[in-house]
Structures are given as C-alpha cells and as structure tokens.
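#lab-general

N.A. 3:47 PM
ok so I finally got the sequence cleaned up, no stray characters, all 381 residues accounted for. can someone with queue access submit it? mine expired

B.Y. 3:52 PM
send it over

N.A. 3:53 PM
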Amino acid sequence: MGDKTKSEQSESQAGTTTEHTVIQQWVEARGGHPATVKGTEHGDDAGVLRIDFPGYSGAGTLEEISWDEFIEKFEEAKLAFLYQEETKGGQESRFCKFVSRKHANRRAGVSMDMTPNQRDEAVFVREQYRDSTNLAARIDLYAKYSTNRQGWHRWLFEQLPLPAHSRVLELGCGPATLWLANQDRIPAGWELTLTDLSPGMIEQAKENLAGIDGAPHFALVDAQSIPYPDRSFDAVLANHVLYHVPDRPAAYAEIRRVLRPGGMFVASTLGDGHLRELRDLVHQLDPESRFGRSLGFTLDTGNAELRRWFQGVETRRYDDALLVPEVEPLLTYLASGMAKAVTEGDRRQRVIRWAEEQIAISGAVRLSTDSGVFIARRAWQ
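B.Y. 4:20 PM
back already:
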C-alpha cells in the first residue's frame, strides 16, 4: 500500500461524535460557525452542511446558519461529526468533516449485526475512551476516597504471581495506570505488550510510561481479533474491559489461543452491588439511565462464563468502600459517564441535596464497592 494522504492521516487520528454540545464547543473554540453551501438549500431545507473558519477558502460559497438550523439538518440527515483535537505536531487542529452515522459506526467497530444495545454500547465506548479524560475522573474518585489504602492497582498487580521472565499482554490498557502505579516492582525480565482500541489511550500510555525501564510494546488491538501468534504470552490481563466487548466468546477464543499452555488469564470486573447507593439515586432521577445497569460480565456471572474456556477459575474480591466528604467529586464522577444527565438542571440540585444531607449526618457519603478479579488458566495441552 502507498503512503496515506494528509487527509487520510487526519481522519485516522480523529474522534467521532453526534453530541451537539461537543460539536458546538469544538467549532466555537476555533472561531468557526455552522454554514451551508450556497445554492444547495431548498425551501426549509438548510442545504449541505459545512463548518466555516475565518480566513478559509469557503468565503463566497458558504452561508452562515444558526446552531438550531444546523442541529435540525444534522439530525435529519443522520450525520456524525469527525474531528481532530490536535495535529500530529501538537498544534490545534481544524480538521473536521461530516460523515454518515453508518460510516461512523463502522469506524467505531459497530456492526449492524449487533443488537441495538450492543451498538449503543460500542458507540458509548468509542466516545468515552477516545482519550483518558473521563476514565481519569473516575479513577480519581477511588484514589482519593477509598477506605482500602493499598489501592486497587497495587492489589491487582499482586494477583499476577508470574515467573521473573514472562511475556504479558494487557487488553484495554487505558493510560497504563496499572503499570505506572507499580513501576517500582515490575520485574526486569517481564516483556509487556500494552494494547487498547483507542489511539488516544495508547498515546497517553506511552507518555505515562516514557521513563520506565524496559519500554513496553504498544499497539492498537481489538480483543476479538488479537494480532499475535498462538502461544505467545505467559499471561493476558483484561482490567475492567470484558463488559465492553460485544462478542466475548470471540475474545475468549483469541485469549486462549495466544496464551501458552498453563498460561494465566486475569480478568477484573464489578459486582452487581457496586455503587448501589449512587445507582439508586440516578435511577430515581433518570429512569432511562444506563448507569449501574447489568454489565453482562460481572463478579456474579463471570466465573461460570469463563469456565467454558479456561481451567481453575477462581474469584477474588477486593475489600473496599468509598467515603466522599464533598459534593463536587461526586458530580464530576457522574458527569464523566452514563449519568451525565443527572448533573444538569434541576436534577443536579437534587443530587447536591442528597449528598449534603448525608455529609451533614455522617461526615461523608458512603458508597459500597464490589470489584475483584477472576484468575484462570489455559489447559495444559
């Protein structure tokens, strides 16, 4: 294949969204405004959408429209917005284009063979994990307010009793928080391959681990199609990842394939009671919210599921709770994911009152947690 064009390179590094506020903020931060191509409008139809920036070559061919007109046309045409935050050189980028939502779904790894819930989840994951911002907000709540002072990532590392010389694959590494938190005790003989489906996560992981000894390998990898040879790794780790995978049996087959006989698979997840106090509050305020809904792969269901593919499956729970003495960290946490709607308008005030009442009585909002890991092995054969 030949080299990519500049446009193709920009598109491969771009994010995709259908959220009107995200589009408006991105455009206005760069001095732009919504527009249509002159001559393409017809009656009440706004015409072909474009984004116009000062000094760009569209002068004379584009006509400015309001954001309300833009949103109406954007939804009517079932479009998605492809955009880039920064150029490869780190400068603010103005690259953007409109694509069909069908095309956007293909870029996000969404298949029309998926159920509607699976398609919604795939799009959500793409948006949520485009970079580490949302995940970092959630990690921060646990880092500051967990009652177990060992910390999740230090505990999780201890569930990897591997030989001094081992090849380790992590699926869904995110910003590499696990390895950053344990950089003082990674054996020199471990060869790490850290992978994620998000280019933004991989870039952040590289930055976070730039100074550690024995530089890891980094790659963009889909857990359902792992691009490594059979029997390549002594251990595979999936830390709070499998509930996002649309086709888990395909992922299990791939994980088992790349593990050496007797190799270890470590998969962490949440239990059904995780943050039940917040879940109950959110569902009172927004009955349609997906926050806290069954993940499909939980500490309560995962053991039986894994036993079909691996041997010696063991469940280990992490003893913890959260004591949050302030309201703002809770709002930040909720806004970072599926419960963003309850942090806006009147519902935001109800969240604040709920938290303040508990803080006044007990000094903090207490949240139950339920997280842990499954330890399994590939059969000796």
